# Entry
Amino acid sequence: MTAAFMTIAGLAIIAATICEVFSDLFRPGRSGALSDWIGRRLFQLLRRWRRATPLAGPTTILLVIAAWVLLLVVGFALVYSPLYPLDFRTSIGEVPPHTARFVTVFYFSFETLITLGYGDLVPQSTVSRMHHVQ
# Structure
């Protein structure tokens, strides 16, 4: 039950983030709720210092992209979590240790999303490999 809940929660976070990204990037007349919230809060914060106000726009772009990446990493980590450690192997072919499950799948999700992966942790089963194709 917990595994199914984590997978559904992860897929919901991924879907919501992708909708947010497409809303911001491909519908310029509209903007996503997350980017609006970050932009408004940052402008309110920087409005107190007149010299810092011009930094609100560029900083908002960086923070929104960082939020998208973080949400996708968390979403994929939730999807991978029920599959870890039995469906994964280390670079030397061993089953990874059972300790720090979420930290490890968070690391795996981050490295897969940001790079092509280091190869130190590899999905082994067909299901986990299908999830790995991000």
About this structure: Residues 2-132 form one domain. The mean pLDDT is 83. The chain has one domain: 2-132. The helical segments are 2-26, 33-46, 56-80, 101-114, 126-132.
